[in-house]
Amino acid sequence: MTSISGCSSYQPTKNAWKSTKNFWNVYLSPPAEVDYEEKNDLSPRALELTSSMVGIDLELSRLERVMLNADKPPTRVWVTNFMTSFPWLNGFAGVKNDGTILGQEPAAPIKDLDFIPLLYEDKKQNSRALRADVQNTPLGPEILLAAPLYDSVDFLGVVTAHFDMRTLAQYSGSPENMVILSPRALLWPGKYAYAATPLAGVNWTDIISNSSSGICKNINGSFYYIVRYLGNLPLVFAVPESGSFPEGNGDTEQGRPFFPKEPEKLSPPPITERKSRIDAIAAPDEASAEDSHAQPEQQADAASDRLDLGTDLRPTVALRRPV
Fold first, then answer.
1. Would you call 191 exposed, middle or buried from its count of C-beta atoms within 10 A (0-12, 13-18, 19+)?
2. Is the peptide bond before 240 cis (omega within 30 degrees of 0)?
3. CA–CA separation, 204 vs 151, rounded Å?
4. Are 102 and 94 a contacting pair, CB within 8 Å?
5. Do 143 and 86 meet the contact criterion of CB atoms below 8 Å apart?
6. pLDDT digit of tens for each residue in the chain (323 aa)?
7. How far apart are CA 144 and CA 79, in angstroms?
8. 8 A C-beta contact, residue 105 and residue 91
9. Is the Cβ–Cβ distance between 230 and 84 less than 8 Å?
10. Which terminus of the chain, N or C, has fewer Cβ atoms within 10 Å?
């Protein structure tokens, strides 16, 4: 660097540093520049779609951030605050690695959901990444987002939040002009008769494997779509680009004939635990021993504050998930 910058034995130090700094900024690490005059090349419909989905996207992003930090069994206070922060959620649950529901809010949810698929790791993503699923119910499709809990390499279970996209649509600036779906279900039809749109009858599993945005056409016109992932679940947002489409009744049931049938129920995944993990459960650590000497009233208060997540998920075991 000294020879490149033109330093010599008689050159003052401040001049040498000035020359070196200039060389660095010009050739090795030029400062970044932002062109605020740059024009995007999005079509008017793409801009409309972005504007329509931005409110929903912000809410989903908020939920993802909180769920990513849900690295240990939540207390009842945490769950209460969580549900207050996301009033559009239908519920929250803690599920053990064998499929046992260890606690949920509300205690008697209105939709019958299957949490077993969320216990399976998606081989295409990190084992500690968020997992999601869509399930059709008589009361409409429900989206489930889960954060897996680990003790070192031992999988303990998941904490899961679930919601109906029709409730979340209120955060869109123009929800009536937008259609939302997943490869498994129609989540929000907007004002359209879904069967008359080019979105119906498309194999969305194949489509999203090849593109993250595009145009679907039929004799009535075309729709522009964008794919947005929630965990490992692709969500498709679409708005009409051209043509005219008849209006529908707003019911998600109209999409049923165009999506795959519900898959067969899964059994819980096999559980592989290290012997040390089993020993840790059988023999509490020093902190647990100290807790055992606490006053009965203190123990009762601590137990009442904790969501009933069972012995295997008790807070005496380290449950932080490495990033």
1. middle
2. no
3. 36
4. yes
5. no
6. 444 433 334 445 445 445 555 554 554 445 444 443 444 566 777 788 888 899 999 999 999 999 988 766 778 888 999 999 999 999 999 999 999 999 999 988 899 999 999 999 998 888 889 999 999 999 999 999 999 998 888 899 999 999 999 999 999 989 999 999 999 999 999 999 999 999 998 899 999 998 899 999 999 999 999 999 999 999 999 999 999 999 999 999 999 999 998 888 889 888 765 544 444 434 444 444 444 444 444 444 444 444 544 433 333 233 333 33
7. 16
8. yes
9. no
10. C
**Letter for the amino acid at 12?**
P
CA distance 95 to 158: 5
Over its C-alpha atoms, the chain yields an Rg (Å, rounded) of 26
271-274 contacts: CB < 8 A, separation 24 or more? Answer: 271/97, 271/98, 271/155, 273/154, 274/152, 274/153, 274/154
Residue with tokens 């004799």: 219
Bridge partners for 86 per DSSP: none
Burial class (CB in 10 A: 0-12, 13-18, 19+), 189: buried
In whole angstroms, what is the distance from residue 67 CA to residue 71 CA? 8
